[in-house]
Amino acid sequence: MKKNNFDPYDFSKKEIEGVPVYYKNLPWSPCIHIRIVFNVGAFNDPVGKEGLSHFLEHMLLKGCPSLPSKKAVKEWSKINVLNTLNAATYIDLTSFISKCLPEKYETVLCGLKDMIFNSYLKSEDIEEERKVITQELWRRFINEKYLNYKKEINSIVYYGNQFSRHSSCLGWPETILKISKEDIISWHKKNYGKGNFFIIITGAVEEEHISKLKDFLKDLPIVNSSTFDFGSINKPKQNKIIKTADEIGKISEQASISIIRLLRRVFYYEDEICEVSRKLISDLLYERLRSEHSLCYDMYVNISKEKLFTNFTVSLKIDQKNIDLAEKIINELFSEIINKKHLDRFNIIKKLYKEQIESQEFNSLDVIDEIFFDVTIFDSYIITQKERLDNLDKVTHDDVVKFISELYNPEYIFTEIILPSKK
Questions:
Q1: What is the residue extent of each domain of the chain?
Q2: Distance CA 266, CA 374 (A)
Q3: Which positions ≥6 away from 138 have C-beta within 8 Å?
């Protein structure tokens, strides 16, 4: 149900017991969606203990006084939160996720409080989860050769900042082995308390539900806000690497090209410039590489925005014989954009994007995901639907050209080419 003048992103905010709470009633929603978000993630992990924050996240859903076993937690999730209990670790955050019917709300808050703050953290559960995380890591890295290659790439592309010691929030197989029970208990005590988390609630939420958070938040420990030094955005140690799939421990029938650029952060008022830029790049590359030349069938462009930086990637699969032509087309296309040759396409993309925003059919989960993104990336600033449209109206072709010129700086671009297996 989309109502005229109803802005689903126009959230309210209040502080309860020292904890920021963002909330909004969505009249179409039968459920209450809850996010409890701690300001600690992979980049906070101690050196040599990469994966600690993610390891702890797993452990907090294994048992507590009111739910003494994994089985009890699973049954509780089925009965009370529609089997949606979940958690996720990001580079600087850990989020606990659930939704429930309004009549289950108080029960859910009690259960979440016990699991998150009073977890048993049993030795046997830790060792079992260590095996699970290790399996997850080897599913990602495949073998020792590929793992070492990922470390090499990180040292080339991301040296001087936190990314150089992380391939993902999971850590590395050898660092997971080094994490002790004492590490997990200490990390929980240090980071899980008032002063280091916030709450987002939306859906069938009323003022009474917000008031009931006082009971959830009282008597919780108080901790300092987690911080980390991201480091600096430097030029890559080299701008290009070419390997065969066999050399890096993979099997591939096609070649792949990946273009990576680490960039400064994007502020909330630049969000639409960034998005129009991504759409323009993607549209033109797709047309040139696939529609005109039939060079690739698997291509994507992504601009990942984080609180302290932006990560730009272009990735495509291609026949080895067409690698030089594809690189030539990509470089020519960016040169054309930077030289202001695609004004007409910019106008089409901007108009389409505005119509997509205006015609959006809101889903409760999409709304809370967007709010979660804004709060975490834009220093608690939430962009309303009206403001997004206003900001988009202000985006000019010159804005996009300037942003893409900064983005596609050859000195900061890293290109990875993986040739097909020869075996």
A1: 12-217, 240-419
A2: 12
A3: 173
Q: Are 116 and 42 in contact (CB under 8 A)?
A: no
Q: What is the largest CA-CA distance in the chain?
A: 65
* Helix, strand, coil shares, percent, the chain, to 5: 45, 20, 35
Token reading at 290 = 């696939």
| Inter-residue contact 377 to 307 (CB < 8 Å) | yes
Rounded to 5°, the CA angle 72-104-106 comes to 90
Instruction: Identify the residue whose tokens are 């910019």.
Output: 346
Residue 42: name the closest of 313, 267, 226, 186 by CA: 226
Full DSSP string of 327-376? HHHHHHHHHHHHTT--HHHHHHHHHHHHHHHHT----HHHHHHHHHHHHH
Contact 412, 235 (CB under 8 A): yes
pLDDT tens, 184-210? 999 999 999 999 999 999 999 999 999
Mean pLDDT score, 129-140: 96
CATH number of the domain located at residue range(s) 12-217 in this protein: 3.30.830.10
What tokens appear for 174 in the block? 């050898």
Q: How many CA atoms lie within 13 A of 165 on its CB side?
A: 18
DSSP label of 61? T
Please give the average per-residue pLDDT across 120-147, as a whole number. 95
pTM above 0.70, yes or no: yes
The three-class DSSP label of residue 176 is: helix
Please count the CA atoms within 13 angstroms of the CA of 157 that sit on its side-chain side: 25
* Size of the chain, expressed as the number of residues it contains: 423
Class of domain 240-419: alpha beta
Q: What is the DSSP string of 212-276?
A: THHHHHTT--B-PPP----B-----S-SEEEEETTTTT---SSEEEEEEEEEPPPPGGGHHHHHH
Q: Helix, strand or coil for residue 378?
A: coil
Residue 219, number of CB atoms within 10 A of its CB: 10
Over residues 38-65, mean pLDDT? 97
> Are 12-217 and 240-419 equal in CATH topology?
yes
Q: What residues have CB less than 8 Å from 77, skipping those under 6 apart?
A: 83, 84, 85, 98
Residue 419: in which H helix or E strand, if any?
A: strand 414-419
- DSSP SS3 for 87: strand
